[in-house]
Amino acid sequence: MFKYILVFAFFIHHSLFSIHLSAQTTEKLYLSGTGSDQTVQWDFFCTGGMNANKWTKIAVPSCWELQGFGKYDYGFAKDSVRGKEKGLYKHRFSVPTNWKGKVINIVFEGVMTDAEVKVNGKVAGAVHQGAFYAFKYDISKLLNYGKENFLEVTVAKHSTNQSVNEAERKADFWIFGGIFRPVWLEVLPAVHIEDVRIKADANGNFTAIITGPSPDDAKRATVKIFDPNGVFFGNAYPADVAADKNIFLVLGKFQQPKLWTPETPYLYKAVFTIYKKGKPFHVVEKKFGFRTVEVKQRDGIYVNGVKVKMKGVNRHAFRPETGRTTSKQISIEDVLLMKEMNMNAVRMSHYPPDDHFLDVCDSIGLFVMDELAGWHGHYDERTGKKLVKEMIDHDVNHPSIIIWANGNEGGHNLDLDKYFSEFDIQKRPVVHPWQLFGGFDTQHYREYNYGIGNYENGKEIVLPTEFLHGQFDGGHGAGIEDYWEKMWHNPLSAGGFLWDFADNAVVRKDKNDSLDTDKHRAADGIVGPHHEKEASFYTIKEVWSPVYFERREIAEGFDGKLNIENRYHYTNTKDCSFSWKLKRFDITTSKETEGKASAPDIQPVAKGFVQIPLPADWKNYDVLYVTVKDRTQKELFTWSFPISSPATTGARMIVKEGNNIINTSEADSLLTVTVKDIIVVLNKKNGLLVSVKNAKGELPFNNGPVLQEGINNFKGFKQYKEGNNVIIESSLNQKESYNTLKWTIYPSGWVQLQVNYFPAAYFTNFAGINFSFPEKEIQSVTYMGDGPYRVWKNRLKGNQFGVWSKTYNNTETGEAPWIYPEFKGYHSNFYGGYFFTKTNRFTVVTENEGLFLRLFTPAWKTDQWHNYEPLFPSGDISFMQGISSIGSKTQRNETTGPMGSKNIFYDYEKDPARALHINLYFNFSAQ
């Protein structure tokens, strides 16, 4: 029986400083470096692959492939698990004489995969199997005190335990070998605390289990709690240890603790001290947070009594130059990027992370799903039980962890489920990713309509641990708005996790240090291998903003009021800050004014509005920007609301009047129009532009307008003058030439194109017109519209309205050289722009609202199921009123939600009043 020790929060206490003066702390001596940014050279011998069969040096910690040894293996490689690759490590170190009589453990935070450890020629303990788990050996009796010691570690990249290979090595990710996490000596007093486990509930109840000293050695234990500023918060009475166990069970009750949440990651520090002969002997410090996790079946996940939804992503521990070996700085960078996308959760796919990653999640604020390795295979029970214990021993006190995952996608050994509860003092829920288990349906990659069964029509909590797949440019942002609105409003939805955080491109030492994603397999990230931000990064940032702006078109009667919804779980919008900016764009200059708005008092999950104090002349600007920052002054998002229409801004640029004489001439089927320094050649039979020249030479813009998914039945052209303007116009016939085209050439040199047309089908991928332009001739584009990133029909959010300059690149999303934003693709809300060649330029302006600019065609990509197929119209430069959506590796575009479906147009039997209209103005002049 345990003796329960009641911890009272009282204010008579010794200072932490005085305890440290008399009690011993745990010493930590690194034998390796602390991470990828600080390593130590050990002797090394690799038995196969690059640089094999010779003794040399290697950085520790590291993955040996990234140091130029062995063979690169992606998890599907046929020989990856059959490989006999081993690494032999040697290292010499000294320990002081005064450590004799202490307990010395050698600790390995992670070794891939089997590790045999010898100290001074003697085996330290059983071979450790399992790559992602911290383990240690007591080597007190093996050391030479005051002298040099000899450490040998034999590491097998693949395990002799087939279940370990099934769980860890046969997987959809890079397989590395080596001592990839730090190694250190843990130096403890003879009487010491071995382990501390904390359960701190939102109601102030505090429980801790202290394991270590025997009843004969330690008679007392105390716990003192301090807030983040070091101010004492509570104390514990001393008590006797249980008579038959080396365990203290400590209970307490604290009044009104500040709670840990991802929005308010408040951490306390507990100082545990054991006493010997009445004197403090060993002290251990642990950070923790007060918070409670509760699963209400057929309802949801409640943290601190609040129902929460996961806005999450799957994350591998990875860097191109160092593989799975990371650092605290890398953990900080990763978490900050997730927070920048307004995420509140991360899943540890598919293995437990470095300790410092969890520290950062604790301190910056993310919910964590911590996962036992197991991709499509699983550990046997004997091995798995040991590794579950090692994982929970290592991670148990992190308040960020709210869920455990037992493997992934069939890699679940059901016999291991009971051990999570046995080893976890907090009894956190356990899920089986991809299965219905424990009241959670975590099925991966279900269609938006959730197809069949439990997702939409079931009774369980819906928490897909992977729901949109980011291979290349599909998934992630494409479809997330449809999915998230459904998740947000479905009471049984607990949110979900995207696949995955970053493209896993590894530096290939055997291929001139090139970056390799194993073709399509690891090009799944929202960011590139060095955190290059794709368009989806900003789409997610807007869609998952905890301050949600209702759609608003700015018109004459706008009073500055914008409707918003507070989608925080714990934060009132009055804790945020709101600012605004008005901007006007002119040809050579811009004008802007800015200010702040009062933060509205809106409780979580409630609705309200923010009042923008607009100046009297606000209508003279082109766009209103509204920026919201959180309580730490980090931007949630900047929304843009266009004020001016394309017709308004176009009127400031387009010049129709002029003194130039327009000359025309005909030869065969060609009509040549000359005005100013421009020569325009049109085809009299079909109205298409044949060629354009100006004073600097030919502009290779021609062969248009060609209707996309429409019929170019322009016929019966007539030429006439209207004032000083020359007009070339087709005839209207509702049966044969119901699509019409009209060119107007103005004395100023500007050229107007008007197209009235009907798409060829009720459902279409596209609607609009195309022109030819050789891709090799384009240098850059400067345009007014939404930018700077390209869009798809099912990924329109994340951009801002403005003027954007883009230099040509040939980037394919998810592939080298990862230059973003991509140049080629669709660009939304196009008002007008300049198109530059190396020696020339031309201008296009529109009066259409909602027009898309298409720039060329990215390389065709697909997958084995033909889900990911980015569709583009013919031609090179297009002006579209309907564009295509995009699918992903796991979803066809139409199954990602309504935005992924085709465009729908009505033809009303070709009634001219119902036709679609495109109205463009061109300035081809070099002057």
Structure commentary:
This protein starts with a strand and ends with a strand. Helix 3 (328-340) runs parallel beside helix 4 (355-365). Strands 52-53-54-55-66-62-61-58-59 form a nine-stranded antiparallel sheet, covered by helices on one side. The protein is built from ten helices and 66 strands. It folds into six domains: 4-24 and 192-288, Immunoglobulins (Immunoglobulin-like); 27-188, Galactose-binding domain-like (Jelly Rolls); 308-543, Glycosidases (TIM Barrel, Alpha-Beta Barrel); 561-652, Sandwich (Immunoglobulin-like), CATH 2.60.40.10; 669-760, no CATH class; 767-913, no CATH class. The radius of gyration is 33 Å and the shape is elongated. By secondary structure, it is mainly β. Its cofactor is Ca(2+). Keywords: Calcium, Glycosidase, Hydrolase. Its EC number is 3.2.1.23.
Tag the structure with descriptive keywords.
mainly beta, Immunoglobulin-like, Jelly Rolls, TIM Barrel, nine-stranded antiparallel β-sheet, 10 helices, 66 strands, 10% helix, beta-galactosidase, beta-galactosidase activity
List the helices and strands and how they pair.
Elements: E1 4-8, H1 16-22, E2 24-25, E3 27-30, E4 40-46, E5 55-60, E6 73-74, E7 86-94, E8 103-108, E9 111-112, E10 114-119, E11 122-123, E12 128-129, E13 135-138, E14 148-156, H2 162-169, E15 174-175, E16 178-179, E17 183-188, E18 195-200, E19 205-211, E20 220-226, E21 232-234, E22 247-253, E23 268-276, E24 279-288, E25 293-296, E26 300-303, E27 306-308, E28 310-315, H3 328-340, E29 345-348, H4 355-365, E30 367-372, H5 381-395, E31 401-406, H6 417-423, E32 430-431, E33 436-437, E34 440-441, H7 454-457, E35 461-462, H8 480-489, E36 495-498, E37 506-508, E38 514-516, H9 535-543, E39 547-549, E40 561-566, E41 577-585, E42 590-597, E43 607-611, E44 623-629, E45 635-642, H10 646-653, E46 663-667, E47 670-675, E48 678-683, E49 689-694, E50 697-699, E51 702-708, E52 715-722, E53 725-731, E54 740-745, E55 750-757, E56 763-764, E57 767-772, E58 780-787, E59 800-807, E60 825-827, E61 832-836, E62 841-846, E63 852-855, E64 877-882, E65 903-904, E66 916-923
Parallel strand pairs: 1-22, 2-24, 28-29, 28-36, 29-30, 30-31, 31-32, 34-35
Antiparallel strand pairs: 3-17, 4-5, 4-7, 6-15, 7-14, 8-13, 8-17, 9-16, 10-11, 10-12, 10-14, 18-19, 19-22, 20-21, 20-23, 23-24, 25-26, 26-27, 33-34, 37-38, 39-40, 40-43, 41-42, 41-44, 44-45, 46-47, 47-48, 48-49, 49-50, 51-57, 52-53, 53-54, 54-55, 55-66, 56-65, 57-64, 58-59, 58-61, 60-63, 61-62, ...
